[in-house]
């Protein structure tokens, strides 16, 4: 993919590289031309890679002490917390790491939404990203079941029962998922297996995600296609490596704050009570990162339609490159879209808030309005905006607006004269 | 001539694909079916419960197949209330007579038909059960009256072994 042919300097390097071109790959990754105007919202790809590796490493260590059995799982987690050397630290990193992972992924997704990174030619990157996001939710749910506390047990019961909404085969599927007539030991052991598997699937998809990214190269805050390499780009190393590294350090401060100062604030106290199939906790809520979808599920009074609405809310994202009909990528040049973008952000935050509240009265009403707006944004506003909106003129290059003073008018004229 | 050859080859391809598909299916099925309830789980199919100590107006909860079963000894008022409900008012129309053959005893799975939580006894707007998870209200016959649950709480197979003992399953 590099524009120039790379030849290793040493004789051994050349011999090796002719047989397995790892050095060519390393050279591609260091020289990879990156838009020079990338802002800090672009550092979350690296942060997410860090999160994935953190979860895999801490998870591997926890698996050395955890026992996947309905009678022993809860005690083995307490054993990790009290007896295992640094077990408390490793488990708190793993548990809070899941939340940090979702925090970073939501910023990463909303950065894409703002700068139109999902648009042609980056649709495949986006769709792989959505699959990764789905797998993350599956891994988070499966992992939450493993400590076998009350929230684990009842969360597992409620989520697996979503499948019972499927007509005809639903009940059979649920029994098959459980390996019994309720959530029990067979369910726990298979959840552990799958929780172990999924991170490695995510790792594989991350490789594809980055590979697909390196074909067209990064989008950028201006959202225009740029020549690579050119005056508009800098090599990945050292420029982006340093910037990503600094952002990662800032992120780790937040991460460490949760781990060391308030490790349980994102969890539920009920999960420190061992699973009891006879008593459902008074107020079941999922982890914070699933709350908006939970609110959508509860806002629909019909069981099947509720499940369909919740799944659609996630899957609709995969169709986004075709729902957004605007040719302009960046919201910087889309004055109307910019406003709808922030309304969507508020809408999702509201859904998250009402998802944590009891489904009744005013909360239910707000949840219904917010759910309707969520779908309205993607199915009506985005397609219509694409051909109604009067966008601002885009610059010809990243460098031009900086060198040419006033960006908009001057570049617009330039572009018109060029078109003639 | 060439047509004949093509036909013979097509047949061989189709036959190969068909045998291959059966082989793949036969290999995958054990991998799928191993997740279904195993023999030891199925063996725990029935439970006997002594109900002699249950007073009228009280409910006991027993575990059957990993799920709670509510056994309620209903008062005369409750029976009258359950039987007075018109079928038109029900989301999932079932007569109380069909749900509780012996009207004093209501035996049903204590599992909300929405997403499987355990409803709370003597709560909700219909004097029966209320599910705290997503707000389904059941009446004193365990029938869904309000909320997202699609059907009434399920009645398991059970029988009175003698006056004081119920065998579930």
Describe the structure.
The complex is a heterodimer of chains A (420) and B (169). Chain A has 2 domains: 28-284, Up-down Bundle (Cytochrome Bc1 Complex, Chain C), CATH 1.20.810; 296-391 and 411-420. Chain A contains 17 helices and 2 strands. Chain A has helices spanning 11-19, 22-31, 44-63, 73-82, 87-115, 123-145, 150-161, 170-178, 185-214, 236-261, 291-299, 303-315, 320-323, 335-356, 361-388, 399-403, 407-419; strands at 33-35, 233-235. Chain A has a two-stranded antiparallel ribbon. In chain A, helix 4 packs across helix 5 (87-115) and helix 6 packs antiparallel against helix 9 (185-214). Chain B is an alpha+beta fold. Helices cover 30% and strands 27% of the residues of chain B. Chain B has helices at residues 2-33, 39-43, 76-84, 96-99, and strands at 47-50, 58-64, 67-73, 105-109, 120-123, 128-131, 136-138, 144-146, 158-162, 165-168. In chain B, the strands form 3 sheets. Chain B has a 4-stranded antiparallel β-sheet with strand order 5-6-7-8, with no helix packed on it. In chain B, a hairpin with a 2-residue loop joins strand 2 (58-64) and strand 3 (67-73). Classes of the chains: A mainly alpha (420), B alpha+beta (169). At the A-B interface, helix 7, helix 8 and helix 12 of A face loops of B.
List descriptors.
heterodimer; A: 420 residues; mainly alpha; two-stranded antiparallel ribbon; 1% strand; B: 169 residues; 3-stranded antiparallel beta sheet; 4 helices; 10 strands
């Amino acid at each position: 993919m590099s524009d120039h042919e790379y030849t290793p300097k040493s004789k051994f390097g050349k011999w090796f590289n002719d047989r397995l071109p790892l050095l060519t790959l390393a050279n591609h990754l260091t020289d990879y031309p990156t838009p020079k105007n990338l802002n800090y919202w672009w550092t979350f790809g690296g942060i997410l890679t860090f999160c994935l590796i953190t979860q895999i490493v801490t998870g591997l260590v926890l698996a050395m002490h955890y026992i996947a059995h309905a009678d022993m799982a809860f005690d083995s987690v307490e054993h990790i917390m009290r007896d295992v050397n640094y077990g408390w630290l490793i488990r708190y990193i793993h548990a809070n790491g899941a939340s940090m992972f979702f925090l970073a992924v939501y910023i990463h997704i909303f950065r894409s939404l703002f700068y139109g990174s999902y648009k042609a030619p980056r649709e495949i990157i986006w769709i792989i990203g959505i699959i990764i996001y789905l797998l993350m939710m599956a891994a988070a749910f499966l992992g939450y079941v493993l400590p076998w506390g009350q929230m684990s047990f009842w969360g597992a019961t409620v989520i697996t029962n979503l499948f019972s909404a499927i007509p005809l085969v639903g009940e059979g599927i649920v029994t098959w998922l459980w390996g019994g007539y309720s959530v029990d030991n067979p369910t726990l052991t298979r959840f552990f297996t799958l929780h172990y598997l999924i991170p490695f699937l995510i790792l594989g998809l991350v490789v594809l995600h980055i590979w697909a990214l390196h074909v067209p190269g990064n989008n950028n805050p201006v959202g225009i296609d740029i020549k690579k390499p050119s005056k508009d780009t800098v090599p990945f190393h050292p420029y982006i490596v340093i910037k990503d590294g600094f952002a990662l350090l800032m992120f780790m401060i937040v991460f460490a704050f949760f781990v060391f100062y308030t490790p349980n604030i994102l969890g539920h106290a009920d999960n420190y009570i061992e699973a009891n199939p006879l008593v459902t906790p008074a107020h079941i809520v999922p982890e914070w990162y699933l709350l908006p979808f939970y609110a959508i599920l509860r806002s629909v009074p019909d069981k099947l339609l509720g499940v369909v609405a919740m799944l659609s809310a996630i899957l609709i994202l995969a169709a986004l490159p075709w729902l957004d009909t605007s040719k302009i990528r960046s919201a910087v040049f889309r004055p109307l879209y910019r406003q709808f973008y922030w309304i969507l952000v508020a809408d999702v935050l509201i859904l998250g808030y009402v998802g944590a509240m009891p489904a009744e009265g005013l909360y239910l009403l707000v949840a219904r309005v917010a759910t309707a707006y969520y779908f309205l944004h993607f199915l009506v506003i985005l397609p219509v905006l694409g051909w109604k909106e009067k966008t601002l003129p885009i610059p010809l290059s990243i460098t031009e607006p900086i060198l040419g003073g006033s960006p908009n008018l001057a570049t617009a004229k330039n572009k018109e004269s060029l078109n003639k | 001539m060439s047509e004949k050859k093509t036909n013979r080859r097509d047949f061989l391809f189709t036959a190969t694909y068909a045998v291959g598909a059966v082989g793949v299916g036969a290999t995958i099925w054990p991998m799928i079916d191993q997740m279904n309830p195993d023999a030891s789980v199925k063996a725990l199919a029935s439970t006997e419960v002594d109900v002699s100590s249950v007073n009228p107006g009280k409910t006991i909860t027993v575990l059957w197949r990993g799920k709670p079963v509510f056994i309620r000894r209903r008062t005369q008022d409750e029976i009258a209330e359950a039987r007075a409900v018109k079928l038109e008012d029900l989301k999932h129309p079932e007569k109380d007579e069909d749900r509780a053959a012996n009207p004093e005893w209501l035996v049903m799975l204590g599992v909300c038909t929405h997403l499987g939580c355990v409803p709370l006894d003597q709560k909700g707007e219909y004097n029966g059960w209320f599910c705290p998870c997503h707000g389904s209200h059941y009446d004193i016959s365990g029938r869904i009256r309000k909320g997202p649950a699609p059907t009434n709480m399920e009645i398991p197979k059970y029988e009175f072994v003698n006056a004081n003992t119920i065998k579930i399953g």
